Amino acid sequence: MSKRYDSDKVRDLVHRIYRAYGFTEEQSAEVAKTLVYTDLHGIASHGVQRMVMYDHFIQNGKIRVNSRPEIVKETDVSAVVDANFGLGQLNGIYSMNLAIKKAKAHGVGIVTTKRSGHYGIAGYYANMAADQGLIGMSSTNSRPAMLPTHATQAFVGTNPIAFAMPAEPHNFIYDAATSTVPQGKIEVYRKLEKDLPAFWVAKDGDQEINDHNDTEDLDALRDPLSNVGLTPLGGVREETGSHKGFGLAVIVEVFTSILSLGNTSTEITPEDLQVGPCQSFIAIDPAIFGDVDQIIKRFSEYLQQIRDLPAIPGKKIYVAGDKEAIAYEDRKQNGLEIDDKTLAEVKAIADRLGVSYGALDMA
């Protein structure tokens, strides 16, 4: 069951929890901002729901509180960053800010980051660039979760691709895993005891799992050597485009792990403290192509033409970012939706760290 909670109160609690871990005031504020931003935009899979995973990694040393990212190779338009196993959100903010700085100076900035951590939603970093009038892109690899087309064992991560660009009435933000759904969405469905839609998860390459009570099989999602995995975009068959989602996931590997000489998805495990995911951050100044105001105006008009197309009865046409903007207005006014199990996890972390959590409801 989910209830509504005041976003400012939740952000304050998250802030105080990360201060208790030993992060600085500024770092804790940034982490709290990213997690609450995610829930405010209706993406429950990657908001405070992820705190229990980060807590586990902080406790076992996979996330190192005192680590700082450093540039290990750099040109005017590019950089490779070693994140030194710091918290993924902090690495992402550092790396995208670096890409933005290069784009403003030279038109393009491309940063690839290795030995990082789970950084939440890729769209947050792409939108950092869009908020400054630039085009932004970000991707990350992750531990094996997706079944390549025709394979019976997971090999690549969910490997999302995010793209953001300034537009009216709000930024265009596309953020999607190259698997049918991210791992976090499966976790949310299990917490809510909801059955899974067809072909989110498959066994032996093509047998669908759509029952949240398939505990043994769903637990096997965390084991890359099992015969259970998330399906690529397009499902499990070439006829429906499975190879397209898988192909996009491999492209993400190029921009994250291959160019940085970091760990590929298949090398990442929760237990090995010496490996971590890799990420990419790209910022492009549209001014290198022409008048920025005219470019944004033309793009905004194009998006509106899509929204205005005839729709099937009872449906509305959205472009990327529309639903998130609607969710933001709702949750800012009426509170975040947090399920009971996630709230219990956050409260348990607060209790262990000696952080008071008080009343978080909308009162």
Automatic annotation (TrEMBL):
- Species of origin reads Secundilactobacillus folii
Give the family this protein belongs to, as stated in its UniProt record. Belongs to the LDH2/MDH2 oxidoreductase family.
Report if keyword Ribonucleoprotein is assigned: no
Could you identify this protein by its name? Answer: Ldh family oxidoreductase
* Organism domain of life: Bacteria
Gene Ontology molecular-function annotations: oxidoreductase activity
Keyword Transferase set for record:
no
Task: List the Gene3D superfamilies hit by this protein, alphabetically.
Answer: 1.10.1530.10, Hypothetical oxidoreductase yiak, domain 2
Q: Which UniProt keywords apply?
A: Oxidoreductase
- Which InterPro entries is this protein grouped with? Mal/L-sulf/L-lact_DH-like_ah, Mal/L-sulf/L-lact_DH-like_NADP, Mal/L-sulfo/L-lacto_DH-like_sf, Malate/L-lactate_DH-like
